[in-house]
């Protein structure tokens, strides 16, 4: 907690003469917390820097200018922000140690799933290698230090990225067991006191983004632990339903996919055979054929069966209103024929000269139109 004096108020924005609340900056979210005064309590929901001053956006009873307030950080929120930010520094350095080409261009830590955008096209194998490095660094519990140096002295430090500020520059570094710097960056954010507190750091995914960059999604610290715990419990629940141990879940899933693919192929073969049977037994309307199929999935198979017959015109209709026309006659255009039938029955559709599909709004009207059309064929 800290005490401060309100120097200015603009609506729900409060300016203090001093503060411990961190404003949103450098990819890190703003702190949250409360301001208590003689007037009551206000919750700090946003903090932003405007030039050299820091504004606190509050909800609740807004303190007046001149009031002395007691500020209290929402520590669990601050701590998670620290885990994300320290985790980002460690992960960026780990990728750099895997390959010097993997350099950070942008970061975001505004949600539990954080991101770093890297150059150099890292792969999942590279990500696994970076994670292995981080496990070792976390186990060694190396110290994280923050301090300020004049910009003229920055050449004495192994900076991972050039600083964006000049003058007095705040550095955040990680000392290794020999007292050297394992990681060093110019940073004004909040950080943990040692590497162990950021663990685990888990890469969740990689995706290509504009600018030739690879976006690496990750979680760190408590948020990563909670996420992995939820994922494990979900996996365990699914594994129990499948009567397999969790470690065999992927194997069982792949086998299930193969079974599903085989079943789908068998189903398609059955539908194809059924379609041929329905086409062969279709009602003859002069020089055209008409059939109402019992299932929408059979429409395409009956149409294919009609296409195997010489000088055939077949019209198909399903209970769901899905319809189609197949033609192997040069003088009957399937697409145009279907459009004409749908103009009469209401609906939309079209297609090529040999086959067309659509959707009708009225089954009976479509059938009547089909019968009328068939009577014109010679």
UniProtKB/TrEMBL annotation:
Molecular function GO terms recorded: alanine-tRNA ligase activity; aminoacyl-tRNA deacylase activity; ATP binding; tRNA binding
BP GO annotations: alanyl-tRNA aminoacylation
SUPFAM superfamilies referenced in this protein's UniProt entry, alphabetically: ThrRS/AlaRS common domain, Translation proteins
Keyword Ligase tagged: yes
Protein's UniProt keywords contain tRNA-binding: yes
Residue ranges of every copy of the Alanyl-transfer RNA synthetases family profile domain listed in the record: 1-230
InterPro entries the UniProt entry points to: Ala-tRNA-synth_IIc_core, Ala-tRNA-synth_IIc_N, Ala-tRNA_ligase, DHHA1_dom, Thr/Ala-tRNA-synth_IIc_edit, Transl_B-barrel_sf, tRNA_SAD
Top-rank taxon, per record: Bacteria
GO annotation, cellular component aspect: cytosol
Keywords: Aminoacyl-tRNA synthetase, ATP-binding, Ligase, Nucleotide-binding, Protein biosynthesis, RNA-binding, tRNA-binding
Pfam family of the protein (one): tRNA-synt_2c
Family: Belongs to the class-II aminoacyl-tRNA synthetase family.
UniProt protein name: Alanyl-tRNA synthetase
Species this protein is from: Deinococcus yavapaiensis KR-236
């Amino acid at each position: 907690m800290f005490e401060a004096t309100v120097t200015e108020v603009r609506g729900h924005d409060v300016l203090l003469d001093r503060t411990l609340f961190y404003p949103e900056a450098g990819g890190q979210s703003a702190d949250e917390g409360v301001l208590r005064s003689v007037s009551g309590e206000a919750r700090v929901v946003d903090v932003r820097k405007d030039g050299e001053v820091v504004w606190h956006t509050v909800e609740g009873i807004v303190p007046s200018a001149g009031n002395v307030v007691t500020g209290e950080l929402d520590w669990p929120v601050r701590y998670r922000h620290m885990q994300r930010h320290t985790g980002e520094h460690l992960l960026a350095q780990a990728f750099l140690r895997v390959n010097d080409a993997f350099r950070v261009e942008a970061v975001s830590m505004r949600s539990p799933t954080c991101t770093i955008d890297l150059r150099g096209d890292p792969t999942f194998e590279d990500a696994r290698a970076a994670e292995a490095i981080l496990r070792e660094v976390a186990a060694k519990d190396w110290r994280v230090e923050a301090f300020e140096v004049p910009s003229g002295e920055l050449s004495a430090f192994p900076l991972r990225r050039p600083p964006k500020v000049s003058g007095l520059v705040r550095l955040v570094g990680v000392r290794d067991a020999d007292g050297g710097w394992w990681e060093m960056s110019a940073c004004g954010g909040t950080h943990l006191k040692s590497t162990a507190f950021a663990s685990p750091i888990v890469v969740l995914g990689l995706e290509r983004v504009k600018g030739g960059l690879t976006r690496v999604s990750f979680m760190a610290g408590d948020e990563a632990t909670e996420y992995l715990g939820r994922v494990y419990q979900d996996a365990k629940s699914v594994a129990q339903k499948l009567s397999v141990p969790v470690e065999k879940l992927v194997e069982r899933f792949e086998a299930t996919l193969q079974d599903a693919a085989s079943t789908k192929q068998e189903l398609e073969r059955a539908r194809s055979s059924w379609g041929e049977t329905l086409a062969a037994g279709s009602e003859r309307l002069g020089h055209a054929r008409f059939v109402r199929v019992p299932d929408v999935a059979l429409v395409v198979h009956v149409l294919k069966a009609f296409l195997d017959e010489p000088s055939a015109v077949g019209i198909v209709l399903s209970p769901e209103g899905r319809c189609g026309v197949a033609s192997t006659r040069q003088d009957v255009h399937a697409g145009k024929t279907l459009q004409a039938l749908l103009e009469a029955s209401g609906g939309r559709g079209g297609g090529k000269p040999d086959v067309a599909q659509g959707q009708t709004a009225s089954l009976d009207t479509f059938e009547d139109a089909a019968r009328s059309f068939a009577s014109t064929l010679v």
